[in-house]
Please model this.
Amino acid sequence: MAASREIPHGANGGTALDCDAIIIGAGMSGMYQLIRLRELGMHVRVFEAGTGVGGTWYWNRYPGARFDSESYSYGYSFSKELLEEWDWSEHFAGQPETLRYLNLVADKFDLRRDIQFRSRVTAATYQEETRSWNVTLENGDHFRTRFLITAIGPLSTPTLPRIEGIDTFAGKSFHTARWPHEPVDFADQRVAVIGTGATGVQTIQTIAGSVGRLTVFQRTPNWCAPLHNGKIDRETQRKIRAAYPEMFRRCQETFACFLHTPDPRGAFEVTDQEREAFYEKLYAERGFGIWQGNFRDILTDRKANATISDFVARKIRQRVTDQKVAEKLIPRNHGFGTRRLPLETFYYEVYNQNNVELVDITETPIERITPDGIKTGDREYPFDIIIYATGFDAITGSFDRIDLRGAGGVRLKDKWQPGPQTFLGVMVDGFPNMMMLMGPHTALGNIPRSIEYNVDWVSGLIRHARENNLTRVEATAAGVASWTDHVKALGGGLLSNEVDSWMTGINSNVEGKQVRIIARYSGSAPAYRARCDEVALRGYDELALA
Ligand code: NA7
Model:
């Protein structure tokens, strides 16, 4: 499709548009959105900052990056042919395999011809007179479009720690989400890892066997549970393939679109022995069952939560030889599962290795990074490599990095200063014709399942607009206020909302992100979809359409 083709503007006359829709980002949501909009016969352009498709799986190439949703429940479900064609090699596939899968999807659906790589969107401004968006790239190019769709991901803007001297380090340093495309040789290297979230845990357990020395700088320990990954043999793959329809149906029914869903019992509705046996069973099982398939009240009731926290603390003490180290690895300031649960493979055993040291930086804070390494309150550690597993400016961070201006020049960043406000997590009043995929206040969970729903809903709305010659679709202020209140109310009573983490909008490395907000929808995915379906079924009458 010729990039220069101009689309007649329609009812509101004047300037022609460069395309019908612009999608920002070629990760899983942007790729699928492109497929769906093409089906509507639209001329679509996708702008992607990276050099290839895949989003999260393109950027996060750090050692050990992998799923912790079951691979087969994570892949796209929309194409039977694709499901027939692709075999996952492990229950929880590693990043290289996932990236290969996403490249296959790009090839199969011939997506690249509409994707412009190395093209970071820096600004987008709504033009009322033409009911269109003017999108600006880093290189200064402009494009006009009717619809603007953000497919920028909730975890895509990495943040480095604010530590003095960080630029003076003479060795190699990497943020995990900006990992080089070439292999990094760890042999005989003295390596530091800062950060022990899901990413730090995967990195640490993967490199511990190949580095010279490894020093982990931990600020807050996280509760982790075993992943229990395994290879998928031919026979298992055959069974998985046969079970796809049933499995995706189950994902539609569970709370967070995982294969796991909460046990209907409360933690105290069983005997102590039964509870212990249940926890043992969950600890021995694959994946997120111990988090998402646990007693229904462990994430809302402190006493119930304490039972699983105590259980996992005992496991950590059993697995780590030096009990002083074990105690450091046991979280004290939050209960099990109230932050995103890292899944691990012999993570705790890493600390039994002679070449691995855990530094608790709440005891001995990092003072600065020097040309030679890291200086804490009591020592200077020399390093060849520093790995920053320090996370992301999550959920709203990637929106903040684009100068998004709606009607009347209002900046989204300013509007969201007190916290995001959305209608269904998809639209914002004052930002007509802009739709967000996996924006704040949408159901996250097993993300591709939510992506497929989100994209289909947005596509339905756009189809409705085109079929009815509507050139302006906007959330109402009342709709946004009501959805935002609903999302906040759902967050009440959840222990996770009483803890600092990316899920509550906290990032110690970003100015202004020190106050907790409700940035996530925490109701069930089926309830989320039911509400969105209702809006569509009623002809989108809760939106302002013109
Ligand atoms: P996370 O979960 O946000 O973890 C970041 C880690 O980095 C966490 O342990 C932080 O400690 C630590 N951190 C951040 N800044 C600093 C500074 N300045 N000094 C020391 N330590 C620091 O990010 P991940 O990449 O692991 O995972 C994000 C999500 O991506 C994950 O949940 C998956 O859904 C995929 P803190 O806890 O803030 O004390």
